[in-house]
Design a protein that fits this description.
This protein is mainly alpha-helical. Among the domains are: 69 residues, Serine Threonine Protein Phosphatase 5, Tetratricopeptide repeat (Alpha Horseshoe), CATH 1.25.40; 77 residues, Serine Threonine Protein Phosphatase 5, Tetratricopeptide repeat. The longest helix is centred in the N-terminal third of the chain and has 24 residues.
Length: 465
Amino acid sequence: MTRTIFVALAIAALAAVGGGAAYQAVAQRNYSALLTRGDTALRDDQAVNAIEAYSGAIALRPESMLAYLRRGQTYLRRGERGDLDAAARDFRMAARLDPTATRPLEALGDALFESQQYDRAASAYERNLRLDERSARVTYKLALARYRDRDIDAAIAALEDTLRLDDRLADAHYLLGVCLREQQRAPDAIKALEQALALAPGLVPAREELADLYGALNRHTDELEQLQMIAGLDRDHIARQVAIGLAHARAGHWDLAVLTLGSALERSPNEPEIYRALGKVWLERPRDDRAFLSKARAALERVASSPAATSETLTLYGRALLQDGDVDAAEHALRQATLRFPVDPQAFVLYASTAEKQNHLEPAREALIQYGSLTASDADRAARAARIASLSLRLNDPETAVHWLTQAASAAPNDVRLLTSLADAQIRARDRAAALATIARALEREPNNPVLASLARRAQSTMNQ
């Protein structure tokens, strides 16, 4: 037990012996002194001393909401997970000691938010707002907690309340734009983000979001305008110039893209990200001659050879090698791309195609399966499953082919070619009954299909053997 707490407890013990009025006066002086000592230590970033002083004050006056609040604020400032839990406990106690106080509830919400307990943080902020519904600050915190908890509708409702209370909160307009974009309400999102920037022109995250939204809408001139303003606000980061160069490329301004990235390279000649971007621009630029491809390969080779090369860089390098006809080197680069994390999903698709060209069928099949596990889109699920099945048949693995063709047929139930392939695989896997059932499904759609008739005869004849 620390000396401060020991002394506080000793003073409390004296009260039991007698001298109540004198004790009260001494205790009050010591309580106030401990609060002051804690405040001073906190200003001097001496969190341990502050916690000790506030704990002493609590020992003297365990009913003190203020002492619990300030000790909780000290724990919150330290920010470690254990400290956040301790802060939340103190704030809960402070709120119980004074149910009419809003500060403990707001602070409790902050501690829970920092520990990523977003739903519980939102509940604390809502309790605060039941006591004082006019706080735009707390309403915004509620919106942010709801957004982090992925409850976008509730976040938007809280943001609308925030802006009714104070329509000049740029951060609230920015977050509203982000939420509206997630709801695919692009025009409303743009309006909200533009309002945020009208209030706070230097709010870089809002400009980044707006630039990204313009890019997604193919409004490349507007995207470039935002990126150039960001670069002006953040001159020290070369990534801003890289973003401008790539935006020029997306807009088809190839010469400006190369010029922008070349200028960035003069300022930072050893920056890998610039070489990666230059390689991407040279690779994707419509080529009049092989010189562009040669430049792409040279730029990407410089960064792909580094142990720190990203999956995206290695994938771009593999593309350049493929287009240059160097299939062996491309296969190696793309294989490495599938092993670097975070993995560029396109690395698996390109590696599968390259490995198949080299007749490396098992790695090609595994790459396509891994690609499917990384992507949520079902747009190409049937085609990808059919391709995996085709590789499985070439590997003399009809059982696996049946599995994947069943998935493909489920994704595209009216595709007779898939049903035909599934029936053929089922025959090869010696599941004749399933093959006949599949053939019957396909014949309902194309009763005169000669291939299906031939498969039916094969399945029937093998069953009779």
